[in-house]
Amino acid sequence: GLGCFSGFLVSMLVAYLLMKRKIVKMMSGYQVLRSTLQFLATTDLSVTGISLAKDADPSLPVLDDFHQAFEVVFVDPSGLVNLCADMTASKYHQVQFEAKRSMEILDDRMVDGFQALLMTPKPMLRTFDHIFHLKHVSKLQGTCKKMQLLNELMDRGGNYVAAALPFIVSLLARGLSQRAQLVAHSLPEIPEWPIDAEPPKHKDVGPLVFGLLFVPEFAASTLEKGPQADHPEALEFRTFWGEKSELRRFQDGSICEAVVWEASTACQKRLIPEQIIRHLLKLHADIPESSICYTGALLESLIRTGKEAGGTGEEAMVSVVCSYDDLSRKLWNLKELPLTVTAVQGVHPALRYTDVFPPIPMKPIYSFHNRRKHLLLPLEEKPCPAYITPLKIICHMEGSGQWPQDKEAIKRIKAAFHLQLAELLRQQHQLVCRPAVTHTDVYKDGYVFRLQVAYHREPLILKEVVTPEGMLKYQDTEESRQLELETLHLPYLTSSLHGLQQQHPVFGSTSRLAKRWISAQLLSDSISEECVDLLVAFLFLHPAPFTPPSSPQVGFLRFLNLLATFDWKNNPLIVNLNTGLTDSDCTEIKNKFVAARSRLPVMFLATPKDQWSSMWTRERPSAQILQRLVLLASESLRALEEQLMDPLSDQDVKMVFRPPLDFYDVLIHLNPNQIPRLLESVDRPVKSVSRGVVKNSSATNILFPVVDYDPVQLYLQELREMCCRNWPELLWCLGGSGRDERLAVGFRQQILQVTILNLCLFSLQNAFDDLALFFYDKHGGEVIAVLWKPLSFQPQPFKVSSMRGRKVTTLNNELVCIPNVEAILEDFEILGEGLVKSVEARTEKWTI
């Protein structure tokens, strides 16, 4: 485009460096590149121009003459032509910024500089934190008149776009001086036209795009403090900011001019630059707000909490963390415990700021529930209660000789601690508690915290195995690995990501957007939350060739690009948390990865505490799910970038959060009244029903609310785990129909007995898990998608043990088993009575 830093300019610059002996013939190509980047990074041609003219000729104009006429000066060998005549100072400063960044990348041994600098494209949408479009460039005619740019307009031959653009950028750079380290613009493209037709008009260049690269510490500041009222600069400040400027007294006693921007939530504060841009362009450039399309935060509506239009959950997350900190102090100071508490570590995503929809303080409405002793059970005729998630906390007890060395005895001791913690918290702090064998739930400030006692030697004891010869040896077991994951690795990950959030305030929101997208694609059960958190952390810790994101939207776009373009087959993704890995460590990880690739997970993540096992991706995603994820990320990125770069389109960014359902074989449609997270859905209902809770964080002496109750998830668990016995047989398994007749009443009553039901699940064989895969958006999805497994419809030899979900037929005079689709679909409805609205079989997608 017009005024670009072209390859010709680069060639002239290298020639200049050669003439000045900053480059010599003996240098390699890499050294020439470094020398050129170094010169660009340290030389501002908008202040100090350069010339290729060798001899000083008094008749030729000097560089100062060029500076009076042009923003960027680079004179050709004749001494008469400025090669950068059409370049704006903003565009050169962008080149200068990129040169500085490139030098940093080349000097970083942890980064593949060649790949980052020469092979990775940097479109504006992924480079800048916010972008906005000037849709109607014809409005710049009024800008030239308002800014009195007649001389510049004449110099440009009437091209009002080229005349006004430098002044627009300069205006914005001044208004965003502390907030943005770079204000850049796209280049007006001159369209081609037939020689026998009229040339295009200046307005035909299309919308102009501006990019803002923020300074994270100041970008969201609500205050623009000016000079003191009696200083001569105060008049200039008032003139620049117009009616927004007002006198204010500050805490130090000074009375200064200031501008205060209206913003109460973190989401609104991130959009203060938009307020500034709209105000300044209207005041000084006569550009109406309708001509500005600001697309810096369109995606944030997907993680907006509840019906409030202002916030995206950051404040709710801070409230959760404050309540957790207070509970931690109470646990530390508990009296009469036989062993002291040595550490309290939160492991729930809300405590690392990455929970998609953070918990909101809730108090149950008693009229929606049945009271059973000290518990509440939802009424069948009422809508399902709102989902209340337990916030898991690991409570480490001190080591002592009193701890037994038998794993079963340790579990009993831990159960006793859970009982005692509940009793002491009730006595000493008047907290409502509900103890269980494996944990204690604490209702505090409207949140439910789930305390789980941990003993540091328990994982080692679980690894003990006695050989037939009587020798004691240690080997990993599934139980020991799971316990280590929950009590050691997950607390470390949570604390590390909590620290990352303090360094980069938009890390949490970016991760929440990424998780929301994965869940919307019905894949949240196929990839762990910790894995997504680490993928997003990689974008902040290793952003090359970009800078770390300062807005959730650009972070999410880079997340999609990472999924779509990273070579998962041939490379490990190394996430250097707390800079715990050295250059040699990374090299060793890569070498071992190559040597053992066939035995490693398809998505391999390495961290300082987990260099070889990739524990967060060991079980999932599978190769097929990863392939699907890469395809969805690629298409979503393409669709989003097309929409965000087209200000004249509808810009329905939610389209990439609506999953394509044509891919699936069966759709199970759910009753919205029985979906507890319905308000978290992508397309939220206009009218919502009461969910049996009210916001109230100051409630005391109340009954414990229904916790972790999501009928859809429990229904999915049954589909995957429960055997195809009919209900009478199941009731008999549970102890006869007289034991608890509510199991047969319907889905909701049956699920409320989940504790009894789970006792049976361990002894039952899987029913549909070998026939189908189930996909669901856990954040308010109204459809469960079912995909038949590729081999499930191949006839199998007749065996009594393989008759689950199948029927007998004859093929080539032999008895074979094939899936009994009609019965399976009927089971889907029976199991989900009260929850399932209908089952849609897409018969064209499968054959028997």
UniProtKB/TrEMBL annotation:
Compartments reported by the entry: Nucleus, Nucleolus
Membrane-spanning segments: 6-24
Gene Ontology annotations of biological process type: rRNA processing; tRNA export from nucleus
Cross-referenced InterPro entries: NOL6/Upt22 (IPR005554), Nrap_D2 (IPR035367), Nrap_D3 (IPR035368), Nrap_D4 (IPR035369), Nrap_D5 (IPR035370), Nrap_D6 (IPR035371)
Primary residence: nucleus
GO MF annotation terms: RNA binding
Keyword Signal appears in the UniProt entry: no
The keyword Transmembrane helix appears for this protein: yes
Record domain Nrap protein: where: 3-120, 125-285, 300-502, 504-659, 661-721, 763-839
Alphabetical list of Pfam families matching this protein: Nrap_D2, Nrap_D3, Nrap_D4, Nrap_D5, Nrap_D6
Gene Ontology CC terms: CURI complex; small-subunit processome; UTP-C complex
Entry keywords, A to Z: Membrane, Nucleus, RNA-binding, Transmembrane, Transmembrane helix
PANTHER family the UniProt entry points to: NUCLEOLAR PROTEIN 6, NUCLEOLAR RNA-ASSOCIATED PROTEIN
Family: Belongs to the NRAP family.
Protein name: Nucleolar protein 6
